Amino acid sequence: MGRQAIVVALPRDEQVAVIRELTEAGFEALPVTTPQDLETILNGRREIGVAILDGESDFDRSLEFYSLLHDSDRDIPALMVVSPRALDRLAGAATKANIDDEFFTRPYSTDSLRWRIEAMLIRSVTIDDGSGPILQSSGDFESESWSKRATIVSIFNPKGGVGKTTTALNLAAALQVRLGLKVMLVDADTVTGHIATSLGLESVTTVVDAWTDDVEEGRAERSLIDIATQHANGLTVCVLTASPLNTEILVPEQVGDAIRAARRGFDFIIVDMHPSYSPLNQTIFERSDRILVPVTPDVPALRAAVQMRDVAQELGVRDKLALVVNRANSGVSVADMERTVGMPALALIRSGGLLFVRAANEGRSVVEQYPKEKVTEDFEILAQKLVGTEFQAAEKGAAAKPAFRIFNRSKEPARA
Ligand SMILES: Nc1ncnc2c1ncn2[C@@H]1O[C@H](COP(=O)(O)OP(=O)(O)OP(=O)(O)O)[C@@H](O)[C@H]1O
Ligand SMILES: [Mg+2]
């Protein structure tokens, strides 16, 4: 079966470019100019996944489209393309909108628009886990992010120095900057965490700081979104603590709940972890949807990954695991590594030499600082794979929905 059809009702030049992009990605993109066009399509039997509407220049017409999409017996999510200014005006009306609708701000690349569509389709087949209502109150409406529900991906290997932080930071940047998704990056390495400094963020408020103040002043503990810092690249960065001492306030269950609660408003939450099996880490494993295990091609790192596989089995989280082979161009066979560890490799990251150090000196990820480097492409492929596997997992859990293909255009990195 083919992928769902996407209705596109945008100004002419934009319409052409967007339809080309969606068609290349394997969607059936249906251009619509008048409400009659849309009615004809809707009365046909084709299943429509999302409708892309212009929320700005001809707003009245878009409202007509919108009401057709949400007629009595249908509920087709809309992606409204607007300018940042128009978005501010629309924000007040957001609570009246359907929870599956979203906004997308101009200017944009057709590639990032297409990724937003992929993410909306994932969410439309994702079953609610019952962790709370999706809509935020209009008071804390935050730009275009009011109806999202993030996938939580933690990055862990019990061995130090294998590339957990490097992977967390650059994967988060690839999802945010290259795929146009909305990402929170959590530094949960309570001992040697250095995400804030690597991203050039000085004096961030940590969760320990914020919750300590809250308790002293008799308030409810703030949410991670309230505590987090915004990076210039769009990432939302949340650091648990700046010091390994006095972290008792980070009660594992409470931290796990706070990470889960932050799912509203993001597409992905990426969690960088300390290399230990602490109670906090065990809770994070349990709350994560996926656990990525970076592994370098050397015996100690592979042994550590095998240990993680066995521990994960005992903790009941083995299904969430996937390897990320780091420094993959060192001559060791990836198939051998997969066999040794007994886990599939989701993606390969080649060695980036000193690029990581140079990028950190500028307070940026390699993905942003060196967009044309091969290692950046590797992180982009990892990001795409993650969006793709989330999609397949959601699809399995929603048997009534049609199956569709994803990543028919994704490129594989050169295998060692
Ligand atoms: N693919 C790569 N190419 C070049 N350098 C890399 C690569 N991956 C990681 N590094 C470098 O290796 C060092 C260790 O990486 P990183 O800090 O990400 O590991 P970690 O698993 O988070 O370590 P820890 O367990 O101490 O938190 C860093 O200096 C990083 O820049
Ligand atoms: Mg680290």
Could you name the ranges where pLDDT drops below 50 across 5 or more consecutive residues?
Answer: 126-147, 394-416
What CATH first level of the largest domain would be assigned?
Answer: Alpha Beta
Hetero compounds: adenosine-5'-triphosphate, magnesium ion
Q: Helix/strand/pairing class, anyone?
A: alpha/beta
Can you walk me through this structure?
This protein has 416 residues and is α/β, with parallel strands linked by helices. The protein folds into two domains: 5-140, Response regulator (Rossmann fold, 3-Layer(aba) Sandwich); 151-396, 3-Layer(aba) Sandwich (Rossmann fold). It has 16 helices and 13 strands. The protein has helices at residues 12-24, 35-43, 59-69, 84-91, 110-125, 164-178, 195-198, 207-216, 224-227, 252-261, 279-287, 299-315, 334-341, 355-361, 366-369, 374-396; strands at 5-9, 28-31, 48-54, 78-82, 102-105, 151-155, 183-188, 229-230, 236-239, 268-273, 290-295, 321-326, 345-349. The chain has an eight-stranded mixed sheet with strand order 8-9-7-10-6-11-12-13, with helices on both faces. It has a five-stranded parallel sheet with strand order 2-1-3-4-5, sandwiched between helices. α4 (84-91) links the parallel β4 and β5. It starts with a strand and ends in a 20-residue tail after the last helix. The relative contact order is 0.12. The structure holds adenosine-5'-triphosphate (ATP) and magnesium ion. The site of magnesium ion (MG) has 4 residues, from α6.
